[in-house]
Protein 1
Amino acid sequence: MHAIAKVRPEPGLEIIDVPEPEIRPGCVKLRVERASLCGTDLHIYNWDAWSSGRMKPPRIVGHEFCGTIVEVGERVTDRAVGDFVASESHIVDPLSPQYLAGDGHIDDTTEILGVDVDGGFAPYAVIPAMNARPVPTVVPKDVASMLDALGNAVHTVMDGPVEGRTILITGLGPIGLFAVAICKALGAKKVYATEISPYRMEMGERLGTDLILNPAKEDVDAALARLEPKGVDATLEMSGHPSSLNLALKHTRKGGRVSLLGVYADAQQHVDFNTIIFNGLQVHGIVGRKMWETWDQMTWLLAEKGLDVTPVVTHQFDYTEFESAIQAMKSGQAGKCVLSF
Ligand code: ZN
C-alpha cells in the first residue's frame, strides 16, 4: 500500500510503498477514509528541533484520521468489524497507574501515533482498540477525521463552566475556532477573541464569535478594559503568543480561570505572578484529551448539542496531493485540510 512517511532525517514527506500493517492482539485494523493535517505534521514536515529530536525515520506519519474497522485483534471485545471510528493519538499503557487514575492524557508511557509509532496517513492502519473511538452517525467524515484536534478544544473549553459565562479566546487557529463553536453550543453569554489574520477573523465571525479584536490594528488591552471592566469569566489561551499570556492574566476576573493550551516557542515567559495570586486565578495547563471523559463530552456535544465545526474544514485533497495541503497550511489561508484515502 501507499503511505505518507518521513523517510529520512531531513525536511519533507514522501509517498512510499509499504506492506499493509498486520493485526496485533488488543488492536483493530482500520480502512482509513479521511485524515486531517495538524500543526504537528507541519513541524514534522519542516523537521524542526522538536521533531528531529524525537522521531526515528522511517515513520508513517499522521495522527488525526477516521475509518472503518476491517479486522479485530485477539482480546478485543468492545469493537467490531464495520464500526466507524476516529483516532485518539495518545497511546498509553492501559495498566499504568496514571491512566487508571484518570490521568491518561499526561501518562508517562504516552507514545504518539505518527510520531513515535506508525500513524494513519495510509489506506490501512493498526491501532490499539481503545484508541479507536466510535463516532456518532451524525458526524460528517471530514469532521470525524479531526476529532483528536477537536478534543483538544473540548478539553480546554470544558476545563471549567461555560454556560452563561463570558469567555475570551486568544488565537483563532483551528483549535481556537473549534473553541468558539463549543462555547456557543454550551451557551456562553459572550465569546470574545483575539486574532490578527483577516482570513481567520472571517472564519471566527462565521462560527459566531461576538467580537474579534485585532492586536495588529487596535489596543486590545484598552478595548477589553472598556468592554469587561471586571474581566471575563474565563480565558482560553490558544495562540502560544507571549503577549496573549499576560492579556489573559490581566483580563480574567478575580477567581476566574485561565486555561493554557498554546505552546510557547520560548518556554521561559515573563508573567505577573502577583496578579495570579492576588486575583485568585485558576491557571490550568491543558494537554491532549482526557481518556475518556473528553471523548464522551465531545460525543455529547456533536450528537446532542448540535456542535457543528464543518466551517473549519476549508480544504479537501486526495492523499496524493498532500504537498498542496502542506502548502495551504503554510500559507495561513486555511482552516483544517482533510485528505481522502
Ligand atoms: Zn493534531
Protein 2
Amino acid sequence: MRFTSLTTKTVKDSSQADVSRNAQLLLRGGYVDKLMAGVYTYLPLGCRVLSKIENIVREEMNKVGGQEVLMPALQPREIWDTTERWDKVDVLFKLMGAGDRELALGPTHEEVVTPTIGKFIQSYRDLPKAVYQIQTKFRNEPRAKSGLLRGREFRMKDLYSFHVDQASLDAFYEEVTAAYHEIYRRCGIGDITLLTYAGGGIFSKYSHEFQTITEYGEDTIYRIPGTDTAVNKEIVDDEGAMADLIPNYKKGDEKNLEELKAIEVGNIFKLGTRFTSAFGIEYADEAGAKQPVLMGCYGLGPSRVMGTIAEVLSDDKGLVWPDEVAPYHVHLVSLCRDEADIDRCENLYNTLCEKGVEVLYDDRAGVQAGAKLADADLIGIPRRVVVSPKTLKEDSVEFKPRSDDQAVITPIETFISVLMEKD
Ligand code: ATP
Ligand code: MG
C-alpha cells in the first residue's frame, strides 16, 4: 500500500478527542475515528489489525471444533423474558420496532443460541456441539471513556458449547482455556495475560477471566504466588474460595499477595442448565430418558484486545504492533529525490509485493525525513526500512525493528532473503 493512496493520514493532535492512551494513539495513527463516546469507525489500518486479531481467534476456535455462525444483533423482547433478563441486564439497549414490538440490541447471545441450537439436539448422539460467532455487540455502558477497551458498540467472539454431562463440559472448558492462551500469545500479550479466578460462575464456583496486566487496567487482581494465575479482587474477601485456590491459605495472607491492575480480555463460564432449562432443551439418553443439556459460554473481545495491545505495547513515540496483528509487516520509507533512486525504491517495493510481503510504502514527495520517520514510529509497523541516496550508493537499506533503538545497514539482497525466511 502506497502512503499516497492510503485513505487516511496521521492526525497531529487528538488531545481533545479522547483521554485514554489507546484511543489517542489509534486516532493519531489513523486507525480509528470516534463517532461518539464508546463508538468508533475502524479505518483501513484499524480494519486490518482487527481482522488479523479476529482471524487468529477464528483459527483457534476452529481448532477446538467450534463451528462459525452469525446471529442477529436485533432481538425480540420475548426471548429475554424467557430467561428473566429483560430487566436485569442493566446495559441492555432497548428499542421499539414497527408495530410497537419491543426489541433489544444483543449484548450477548445466550437467548438466541440456546433455542436455535436446541432445535438440533434430540439425543445424546447429537452432543457435544460448539458454535461461535465474531460479531458486533451493544452495551449501554455508563462510562465509555477508555477508547476501544470499553465500547458501547464493540466486537466480541462468543463461543457456546452443549454437553451431555459435566465431564464433557469440563474437558471442553480446558481445551478452550488452552486455545485462549494461544490466542493471547499470538496477539503478543501472552506473557502478561493471567488466567484469573472470578465470581459470576452460575453453575460452578468460579468463572475464569483472562486479565492482561497493565497499570491502566480497570480491574484489580492478585497473583497467586509462584504461578501464572490470579484471583480477581471481588473474590479475595471470600475466605473459603481463597483457601481453595492457595495452599495453606490463612486469613490475612491476602496482604502478602502481589496486587496488579489489569484489563479483562476474555471471560469463560460454565453455565450448566441455566439457559437450557429456561428454553426446555433436553436430550434423550441411551435409555431414552430425557436429560438436561449442559452449556458453557466463552467470550473474548477482539476490539478490546486491539485496544489492549495499543495501550500496553506502545512507547512514547507511538504504537508497537506484534508481527501477527500488524497492519503491514514492513514500513518502507523512501528518502529518495532523484529519479534513478526513486526508481530503485519503486523496484524494491514491487519486488516485496510480488513476494507477498505486506508493505506500507511511504512514497510521499516533499515530506521531510523527520516527519516520515515520526509517522513510521507512530503507526508502529514491526520493521522499518529506509531507502536513501546514501544507502543506495552501497546497494543497501537501513533496517530497524520498531522495538529496537539501533538501525543496521543491510545489503538489499540480504534484507529480502532474511525477510522471506521470516515469512
Ligand atoms: P467488563 O467487566 O469489563 O464490563 P464483562 O465481564 O461484562 O466486561 P463479558 O460479558 O464477560 O464482559 O464479555 C466477554 C468479553 O467481551 C470480555 O472479556 C471483553 O473482552 C469483551 N467486552 C465486554 N464488554 C466490552 C466493552 N464494553 N467493550 C469492549 N469489549 C468488551
Ligand atoms: Mg466478564
